[in-house]
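Hey, sorry to bother you again with one of my protein questions. I've been puzzling over a protein and I'd love to understand its fold better. Take your time with it, there's no hurry, and the full record follows here:
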Amino acid sequence: MRKSLSGALAGALLLAVLAGCSDSAANNGQAVSVEAVASIVNGGAVGLLDRYAGMVVSGETADVKRDSNKTVLEIYVKEGDTVREGEPLFCYDSEKMQLDLDRLYLKREDFANTISAAEAEISELEGQRSKAKDSEKLSYTLQIDSRKADIREAQYNNSLNERDIASMEAALENTEITSPIAGRVMSVDEEGSADSYGYYDDEQSGGDTGVKFITVTDVTSLRVQGDISEMNAYALTEGMEMLIRSRLDNSVTWRGVLSSIDWDNPVKNDNSDGMVYISSSGDDEMTTASKYPFYIELESTEGLLLGQHVYIEPDTGEEEKPAGPMLPSYYLVMEGEDAYVWADDGKDKLEKRAVELGQYDENTDCYEIADGLDVSDYIAFPEEGLTEGQATEKYDPAAQAEDLADDGAAMAGEAVAMP
C-alpha cells in the first residue's frame, strides 16, 4: 500500500527542521537535539493526529457578574463555601438604587414640563403669526420651528430616561443575586480583575454583561478538558463521541461526548505546539497559533480523579486501538529483528534504548511502540555518528517559532534600512 502523501510531506518537513536544529551535532561536538515523543506523535504533523492531552477537571462552572454601575451592599459568601442552586450570593444597595430611581422620575417630570411649555409657546406663536404682517411671519415661523426642535429633543431624551427607569425598576425587584448552580465558591473578586489585555468584562461587551465577580464550580461532577489548536480545529466538532484513555494503563478507557469548544477563551500563555503561520494581511507577520479548550462530558467517572492526566481521542468504534505511541519509522534503527531509538536518559545524556514494536500503519509509516518508550521521553533523529553518553539539548518548538519570528523581523528591518 502506498504511503499517504500528507504523511510523506510531513516527514520531509520534520526531517528538514531537525537537520537545521542539530546542524550535524553528532559530527561537530555540539549537543544532540532531542524532541519530546508527545510532540512528535501528538503535536506534530505525523503520528497520532487524533490524540490529545487532557486533564480531569470539575464540572460546570458559572461566572456570576455584578453590574459595575451599582453598589454592592453585602457579600454573603466567601471562597471555599458550598452553595446550593438559587442560594443568594450578594445583594445591591437598594436604598441608593431607590434614590437613583427617584432622580429618574424627576427627570421624567422635567421632560414632560419642557414639552408642555414648548407646545403652549408654539400655540401662542402660531396665533401671533396669523395676525402679523407678511414681512414679520418668517420670524414667527423660525421661532415655532425652534420650539418643535426642542420638543423632539426632549422626547428623545425622555425615551432614554424611560429605558433607564424600566431597568432600575426591574433591578429593584431583585436586589439579591443568586447562584445559578450548586457547587463551591472558587473565587470572589471584589475589585473586578482585568484580563491579560487590560480590559474588564463590561468594557469588552459595551457594558451590558457586567464584571465577573463570583465563580462557582460544580465539584460533585467531573469532565475532561483538552486543548485544540486553531490550525487543526476542523478535526473536532461538538457532539462527537470521544474516548478517554488512561496514561498509566492504555487498556483502561472511558467514553463521553464532546460537549463544547470554548472559542471565546483561548488558552493563555501556551505556545507548546509552536505552530506558526504567515499573516494574510500582506505584512509578512508570523504569528503563533492559538489554542482553545474543549470539554468532554463522560458516561461514567468511576476510577477518575480530579487533576488526573489522560489521553483524548475520537471514539471510532474500533475494537483494537494502538496501546502505545505511533512513532514514525525514520526515528527507529533496525538491527535484524531488534529495534532501538536514540533517547535522552533523563540526565541530558544520549542512550541507545531498545524498544518493542507493535502494529504497523502503512498509511502513515508509523510503528506502535509497545514497550520501552513513553510520550514523556525525548528522542533524537538517528543521524550518523551518534554515540552513547553524548550531551543532549531538548528541542523547544515554541522557542524555534520565536527565533523564526525574530529573524523575520530583523530581515524586514534590514530591508527597510536599505537605500
User: Anything to note?
Assistant: Residues 134-173 form the longest helix (40 residues). The chain has four domains: 5-48+323-399, 53-59+224-314, 61-86+182-220, 94-174.
